[in-house]
């Protein structure tokens, strides 16, 4: 760093000849007593003292220029360079080279210290702003060629071309551990990697306590009395460690090791808590570079304990640092270089930047500032972790492109950045995993083959290559017959993984799950069942899923209904909403095969909804085909034909669907049924109209928006009449949605057909201004007579710029979560994102969706906080662990599915929708669910 700051004096005054320089130096030496002698000493820890001089009071004139100066004496123990910073108050030319000139002049000998000025503005340096109030920027320098001699006096002088300059404030120290300990660091800002010896406030204590000892004590406390007490102990230990002059970096590395490869390797809750606490401390200590380094580790450990919103928040330092580098973290903003895979052109290769667009300033432990355009060492790890979270929300294109970005960057940085090889392997493994989850087995297999055949060394004892070998076998089992040789190869991989200290338990257990699958397909069902049951007892998630698949395929239905309920509960505890799509599909298979057609329809519809929601495009056509088969069994020939046509059209999309999927869909549609014949329905279907009551208050200058839902939980299509009275309206039906234009004369009623196990949307709107008054939306069906949804439209409130337009009262439905819809309006228009939350008066699982059923969040217990276990957050623009309302052209639609936990109380359940504005939460809509 020093080598970049030498050799020139930025002179703004006329060049002087040798005689002029000698005369000036002689003049300054003769008048040195007029300049204050400042002491190199410590101020308020961790900073060196800040000194001040006023040129108009202290300055003297020579040859038409005003000179102001101070003197300092180097310590007798001087063991390194003298470094300093200064700022000038007033004047208009802090960046104007004609504003002033300066130099350092030894009092007792002729030695020229000529250094380059480096200027920084105050925006990124809060400690400078605190110590230099009223100053806009500062300069830093090093007196280092030649190094000043110990115990010598020097004059630092400034000359000005005018006489109106104000205060000069400055600070000096010595660039060494002793300098930091005895004098302090430059008051630019706290170090980017955390406190160092300059933070010492306790003298005479000797060396600080070894961090490893503190870790050992914390682990013992955690095991005895819990995580809270252990973290409290670490808080106390870290405070004492810093006060004794310990290097935060050493404490940081000790705790990081404990969380990653120590006790935290097995005790996942402790690992997440330790990483989270450490990252919070980094942020508290303004050690932003250290906080950014921790992003991937902290987020990944949060994921292991099902805290997905906390994982997103842990990535905030990474996203903030990308902003500081003027770099978008979104791969979609990079130049498109064409498709990444010929058979999946939706995913693109991008032009990967190796350096930032703008350099960022970094403060070291001496207070020295340097600027770098390098991407962070752990850039790829943070990018892949963010990608994993986005995949869970169904954003698989962005997820895969992020991982390809990280892989390309790591590949180009091989040999230049520590662990670049490891990052390439983890990125490519992530791509393969995403492709496999999507059902693109051929592409996933190709990625795994690339990993195995890669020539670069695989760090962590070939961990990635072992996993790729395992996944290739698993993919072969998904596409073809099992072979005895697979069992032997899987046993070898499993053995090597268990001996590898860098492989976690879930990874080697996943090999056992694949072995159980192989055993099952080889006809060894009892062995497979025993192996899976043992894994289930140890808490393995994949084993639970696989055991259900095998029992279903083998026709072993005893106890399976309860197992489905258990697994659904577990998936929700794990916070992996995306996995529910497959579970609903399997449950629909089970219900159909056991003669429960009405329930199977509801489950199949939900599986399809989730597959659309998360864009699981390979699974979707197969489930639509299964829906067609079920509708045909329920004597809904029209619905069956429509679903079959859709399934074939979806499967025939060669842009993204493998050819084999079309064959699978045709096989489903043409296969003979193995399910009992559907019984004729003896009861009349009770269609339900929601909400029962609603109120709408549009924002001034915007139209009315509202939505009602007609639910058909039965196995027969139902036809009825939707009508409106109280206000004029025009109703149109397009086969899916009834559009109701309030205040517009027209057709006041329309015939509607609701497919079995499905619902019809009723969207209400108006012109501007909307009418004011009451109306009744009614459904008249063959079974349950007339149902009504009563609405009140109130006049807009003056001064309300944004609000939820509608709120209602809903009744509980045993076949579904209770669907609640809201329309949010913002008079400002445009696109924005507003933080919001939903809270329930009793424990309830709340799932939130936006336009086109885009997932927004899951609150596992309805407490409004999304940082607990089982909570998921899919849209978080600013990574603050708060959900965001996506507003487009001033409006958005919100859809909530509410699943009360336990029985509804007699008074019902209140659901409050709140937005975060002005630093506080405000209720903007309240709904009620009644029995």
Q: How does this model look, in words?
A:
- The structure is a single chain.
- With 931 residues, this protein is α+β, with helices and mostly antiparallel strands.
- The chain has 27 helices and 35 strands.
- It has a ten-stranded mixed sheet, with no helix packed on it.
- The longest helix has 21 residues, at 459-479.
- The chain is globular, with a radius of gyration of 34 Å.
- The N and C termini lie far apart (71 Å).
- The model is unreliable at 1-14 and 91-98 (pLDDT under 50).
Quaternary: single chain
Helix content: 25-40%
Strand content: 15-25%
Low-confidence stretches: 1-14, 91-98
C-alpha geometry = globular
Q: What is the rounded Rg?
A: 34 Å
Q: Sheet with the most strands?
A: 10 strands, mixed
- Strand order in the largest sheet: 21-18-23-24-16-26-35-34-28-32
Number of helices: 27
- Mean pLDDT value: 86
Distance between the termini: 71 Å
Query: How many individual β-strands?
Result: 35
Structural class: alpha+beta
